[in-house]
Each structure stands twice: as C-alpha cells, then as structure tokens.
Amino acid sequence: MTLQSGQNVGQIIDNGIGSRLIEVDALVRTQRQDAGTGALAGLDTQRRILDNQALGRLHPQCLHGTQVDLGVGLKRTALVTADGVVQHVGDTGNLHQIKVSDIPAGKLRDKGTPAENISKFDGTKEEIVYLTCTADIKGKNLIFATRMGMVKQVPSEEFETNNRLVASTKLQENDKIAAIVPVEGQTDVVLQTSSGVFLRFLAEEISVMKKNSRGVRGIKLAGGEELEQIYLIGENPIITYKKKEVHLNRLKLGKRDGKGSKVRL
Description:
By secondary structure, this protein is mostly beta strands. The protein is 3% helix and 40% strand.
C-alpha cells in the first residue's frame, strides 16, 4: 500500500494499559511495549480493519498470533510509551523522527493526522518502508536491503539523533530501499526478487557497516529484476508468496552474492 501525500497516516490510540499505539498505513508486524519496564512482550497480532479510503483502523480484538489478510494490505504499527520517539524510514533513505507527544491523540475511529503535519515526510516523493520506536531497536542491528540488491547491517546506535530528519543510508543512483528488518538472533537471511527468485544464506555474511555506506551486493539480479523483500528465518519460517506457502527453512543454503533459484509453486 502506497502512502500518498495528504493521506491520514498517524494517530495515537490509548489501549487502556498505560501505553499507546501509533498506526500508519503499510505492511508488517505489531509490537507491544510494557509501559512500566520498557520491555517488549510477546504480542498477539491485532486485527486490522480498513475503511473505503484504505486508511487503517485497529480493532481491539486479538487473534492470537494470526494475521488476517484483508485483500488490500495490512498496516504497520508500533506500540510506544507516551514519552517515546517514533522513527520511520522512506524508500529514498530519509529517516524521520517524531516525538510521541507531538502526535495528536485520537479515538479508535479517527482517521489520524497526516504525517506531513508533524514531520518532514513528503508522501509525493517517498513511501514509508519501515516504522519503529527507538526503544524497540536499541542494541540491535538493522539489515537494509535495496531494490538493486545491496545489503548491509547497521547498528541501531547509528540512528540516535535529535534531528527530525537525517539520511539513514547511502544509495546508488536510481536505487531505493526495498526493506529494513531488525536482527533478533536469527542466523539465516532470505532475499526475494520481483521474478520470484529466492536466495538463502547466513546473516553473518552481511557486513556490519556505518549508515553512510552503500553496503555489499546480496544477490545477482537479472535484467529488469529488483529485490523485493528480505526475510529472517525465525520461529515461523513459512511465508505466503503468490497465494502459495513457501517454507524458507527448506531452501538450499547458498552464499551471499549468488543468483538464487525460483521456487516451484
């Protein structure tokens, strides 16, 4: 789902347990943070309900770890405390930072506040590819993957800043960020291209670098092909690709900068 300029993309919803949820349209996982200890707790995935404008709303009912495919994509959500800081990265490499206290509180059915009103985000020039809170990524490495197949690991400390807008990475000409994922103990990485090619290799083969580096090549791409997604093989190694299940842990273990192979669907 593309975030367009002027689209209502952010709001805070009080969940009644001392922490608040920030929601924006996009894709990924839901996280929950304990307001008292700051520790992340294992969370049920929240059901998402979208209105006619494809704007996200959170339904309070938990589905016990089950993601619901609504046909038009899911929202990206991050749960933070009232004094927290939200960071979101655009595909052009811009990292935007917003204090939770600057995001107007709203009711469950409110559409939220345009990101342009509370940050330097410009939806006419960039799309949000990653949303997090600073407390969630503290002490972790983030893997950046670009459409041209470049990858790198960056320590989260590289993104500690008081500025509202900084460059999160260095990109080659005409390249954009495809995905960003935090490393949480996983050992294997899988890259997926626009033509359905998958390449699995060890995460340690991705160099740890500064944020202002371009990275190393993760996969050899064919003409007209782009890197679309990056996965870390964890407790649930099964993804859905073109309405078919792909078992990532059954892919042959290769080497970074290989060609990968197509999966039989």
